[in-house]
């Protein structure tokens, strides 16, 4: 049989197929090579806003703890001895005025003693009048010689003795009247009754405490301040005091204690407090002393990130990458935080979205100025490929 030979047509078709397939493969490889650089470009991890640290005036405050106590606490006791209490007119918590009757003792015995001494005074005054008359008559006869000098001296001495007895009787009457006055226990000053031990029917001795009262109703906060900080506090400084009940008042430093506790090395600062029904003596309170203002480098509070017990901020560099920097925060005012160490004043700090960043992340900055430019940019950017073609 004659050998089969491919026709020229078959050979032409085979060559055309090979050329077509090679061109297709070449085109595919070229397309993939062109797309490869775009795919390899990193994409931003997050869109953030940035802000620069600002120099602002921040109040200087000193925090302390302490107890609320009475400015002065007066002890009201019995001044009569061996008398029975017949009435107690006030109780704990009552507001009293100076001179108000707090309690009353039985006055019958004292009134009887007053009447007896008054009668003795009248008798002494009568004897003194008689002695004075006798002495005057004797002195009138001195020139005539009817009486010796000794007799005249006796009449004069009797006169002086009678007058002295009048004064003694008058003093006894004053003492008994004072005892009668002491049968009423009076408030020594205006204030609030803080304790009461007086009981109706009790017979108490002189000096026994019946009541305790907070003078003027004034309270003070006794703040414990370290010895290193005492020199920063001056009388007249304003203090924001917050009690454990949540009540807050503004006090004024009255005095800085002259001594320091040798055990704790803390000193007491006495702060006068205004009247407030929610603040009582014996409460624990904390407060902040206002010590003026000073300049500080601050960042928005949102820019501060806490991780593993440390504070960080993320600084955005020129390549839109963030660098994590450890910082030391200080005072806080409104929505800003003072940075005392670890941050340059010219750095751009990530604010919104900072809590989701990691060191080295690529970000997209979308501040107000950037956003306005981006809104105008899409139109020419969308036409750029068509213009290239």
What does this protein structure show overall?
- There is one protein chain.
- β13 (238-243) and β14 form a beta hairpin.
- The strands form 5 sheets. Strands 3-12-15-14-13-16 form a 6-stranded antiparallel beta barrel. Strands 4-11-9-6 form a 4-stranded antiparallel β-sheet, with no helix packed on it.
- It has 4 domains: 47-58 and 295-371, Beta Barrel (conserved putative lor/sdh protein from methanococcus maripaludis s2 fold); 62-71 and 216-293, Beta Barrel (Elongation Factor Tu (Ef-tu), domain 3); 72-106 and 188-215, Beta Barrel (OB fold (Dihydrolipoamide Acetyltransferase, E2P)), CATH 2.40.50.100; 107-182, Helix hairpin bin (Helix Hairpins).
- The model is unreliable at 1-7, 21-39 and 369-389 (pLDDT under 50).
- 31% of the residues lie in helices and 37% in strands.
- 21% of the residues are buried.
- It is of the alpha+beta class.
- α2 packs antiparallel against α3.
- The protein starts with 7 loop residues before the first helix and ends with a helix.
